[in-house]
Write a structure and sequence with these properties.
Strand order of the largest sheet: 2-1-5-4-3
Strand content: 15-25%
Structural class: alpha+beta
Length: 665
């Protein structure tokens, strides 16, 4: 990085071209003057013969010489000045004009003196004049020639003065332009630095800050005025300042740009910056410090760490998941699936199947006879591998003598992934239970769990097979549909949707368990017991719900029927006129004692319940026989009095014995 140059131009020695220009002017003037002197006299002598004509011609020749040389000198100086003082080529140089100008004046004087001497000699040769007349003529000529010389000197001096003024004006314009460009560059640099969200700074060789932009001030919590002129020890802890100081010296010593991550403690806590630093140079390419650009990458580093942790977690889940996993490539013959090769398996695969060292081998080699005994399994895998829909099914593999619950999908053509669980024990239990009772089987079927996930708008993002079967829809018919509009009865739709929206907005606490009805495709309503969990996005904002539901319609109906039946039984027993006593079948203890029994025997319900019936209302002489009969009935379900109506003695609370007509069932 190079800082803008100082606007004040430096005095540079005159370039060689300026000396060459002055020398060229002098030589041209000398050659012209010499040729004039040598040739003009010969020409005058050839043209004029009379003394007076020659004198007059000599005077005119001198005036003409002065005029011609003056014009020649002016033209040369102007051309030289115009080509040599242009600001675009020499905007910052003043030529040293002392001795060249003196040399030019000396040459003019020398040639002027030569012209006067030559005029004197010519006058002397032309005519034998009286010395006083000769000197008068010469003096007259010398006067005019001297005046002409003075005029030439004045013209030359004026030209040189104008030349210098022009150069000074060009220099002033160049300085002004340079200052304007530098100010513009500094303003642009400041604007760029302050508009950047990255920290931009510059330091001198001693590590003191020269530049500190707005973003850098925001990071350290100090205005630039408090930072400029100070080093890192005023901003960071000692060990971090020492680290930055080491980097500073290394950049200057190695004279190269470095990019590295730096962890710094600032008022907002510990942050990670990606810093690019390099040498700072002046206009002469001399290193005068360093510059730096630092970007806060703390969130990116945290995201990378979270991603690595997530990947590690997924890999750990893959290796430790309870389900078996197998990635395979299907082998076809004339588009018909024949066999498959194992490409990757997890530990649970080996644990559940007992198969080892399967990677790279064919299924027919690992499990002999599978292609012949389980062609249906091969057909399903082949169909999915050719781009079919993902499938979930349960299958008995004859070659392994095992039941499997398998979910299979295709990650790419001719490949499939099977995620499975060995359900042999479960299937055997199911088969045994199915043989025992259709009612138990029906109960097991209704206990399948419905799983459904909703986004923040209440749209279905996932629903499992049990849910699809319960509701009577295909998966593609529900995904993306609004759950409350599609799957809830109209009278519950608005209420449940309002509760859901308030839940997502955080206005109410989540309810882990709830019950509500769903509307099946066929119009049937099913009562579902839900267990709900809230889903959050990466920012921690509520993004939806995940719910598991169990169909409790039949259970609720049975409970209601039981309540109704119990209520009917209670009403009947409390309103009949006969004493009605209900005892358990093990110890003969009373569990129900109706109002008629209270009136007949004199004991209240609270006094009677829980006591053995034969001890409460039977005479003591029958206690042993009654206990033996109850024990026999409990063990065999048979008894002498069961199913018959007998007259037996009974005992009231007051000790009165009386006969009762007893029916026992």
């Amino acid at each position: 990085m190079t800082i803008p140059p100082d606007p004040a131009p430096k005095q540079a020695p005159p370039k060689r071209t300026r000396h060459e220009g002055i020398l060229a002017v002098v030589l041209i003037y000398a050659v012209f003057a010499a040729c004039w002197i040598l040739l003009s006299d010969k020409l005058v002598q050839m043209i004029f013969t009379g003394p007076e004509q020659i004198i007059l011609a000599s005077i005119l020749k001198g005036w003409l010489f002065v005029g011609v040389t003056t014009l020649l000198l002016y033209g040369l100086l102007r051309r030289w000045a115009a080509g040599d003082t242009a600001p675009k080529t020499r905007p910052a140089c003043f030529p040293q004009i002392g001795w060249p100008h003196l040399a030019l004046a000396a040459i003019i004087i020398v040639f002027t003196a030569s012209a006067i001497i030559h005029s004197f000699i010519a006058q002397k040769k032309i005519a034998k004049l009286d010395p006083s007349e000769l000197y008068a003529k010469v003096a007259e000529n010398a006067t005019w020639i001297g005046l002409t010389c003075a005029l030439a000197l004045i013209i030359a001096a004026t030209g040189l003065y104008l030349l210098r003024q022009r150069e000074q004006l060009a220099l002033a314009e160049a300085v002004q332009q340079s200052q304007a460009e530098r100010i513009s560059a500094l303003h642009l640099l400041a604007a760029l630095a302050d508009s950047s969200d990255d920290a931009i700074f510059a330091k001198d060789l001693d590590g003191r800050y020269l530049l500190f932009n707005r973003a850098a001030s925001h990071f350290v919590g100090k205005p630039a005025e408090e930072v400029l002129g100070r080093d890192d020890h005023t901003l960071f802890p000692p060990e971090q300042a020492k680290m930055l100081e080491t980097t500073h010296h290394r950049i200057i010593a190695e004279n190269r740009t470095l990019t590295e991550e730096e962890t710094l403690t600032i008022p907002g806590g510990e942050r990670v910056f990606l810093a690019t630093k390099g040498p700072l140079r002046d206009a002469d390419n001399k290193v005068i410090g360093i510059f730096g650009i630092a970007r806060d990458i703390t969130e990116r580093k945290q995201a990378e760490a979270a991603l690595r942790a997530s990947e590690l977690g997924y890999r750990s889940l893959f290796e430790n998941m309870m389900n078996g996993y197998a990635h395979c490539r299907m082998l076809f013959d004339n588009a018909k699936p024949q066999d498959f090769i194992y490409l990757d398996v997890n530990k649970a695969f080996e644990t559940q199947t007992g198969l080892k060292d399967v990677i790279g081998r064919k299924a027919s080699e690992v499990i002999p006879g599978i292609c012949e005994t389980d062609p249906g399994l091969i057909e399903i895998y082949g169909r999915v591998a050719l781009g079919g829909q993902a499938e979930h099914f349960e299958n008995y593999v004859e070659a392994l003598q095992m039941w499997f619950s398998i979910s299979v999908y295709s990650p790419q053509r001719e490949h499939f992934v099977a995620v499975f669980d060995v359900i042999t024990e479960r299937k055997e239990a199911e088969l045994a239970l199915r043989r025992e009772s259709n009612r138990i089987q029906h109960y097991l079927d209704t206990m399948q769990t419905l799983m459904v996930a909703l986004d923040g708008e209440g749209k279905i993002t996932m629903i499992n097979r049990a849910g699809l079967e319960l509701l009577g829809y295909a998966e593609h018919e529900l995904l993306g549909r609004h759950w409350f509009t599609t799957c809830l009865p109209p009278d519950d739709e608005n209420i449940m949707n309002s509760i859901f929206q308030r839940l997502i907005a955080g206005e109410i606490d989540s309810s882990e368990y709830c019950e509500n009805e769903v509307l099946c495709r066929n119009g049937q309503r099913r009562l579902i017991a839900w267990h709900n969990a809230l889903l959050s996005d990466e920012a921690g904002q509520l993004a939806g719900t995940l719910s598991s539901g169990q169909d409790i319609t039949e259970r609720k109906q049975a409970e209601q029927e039981l309540r109704d039946s119990g209520e009917r039984f209670r009403v009947v027993t409390e309103n009949i006129r006969d004493a009605f006593i209900l005892v358990d079948g093990k110890e003969g203890k009373i569990i129900l004692w109706n109002p008629a029994a209270e009136a007949m025997f004199g004991y209240t319900k609270d006094e009677a319940i829980g006591r053995p019936v034969h001890q409460l209302i039977g005479p003591s002489r029958f206690h042993e026989a009654a206990a033996t009969g109850i024990a026999h009935f409990t063990g065999t379900g048979e008894g002498a009095v069961v199913g018959n109506t007998l007259e037996l003695p009974a005992l009231r609370r007051n000790g009165e014995e009386f006969l009762v007509e007893l029916s026992l069932s």
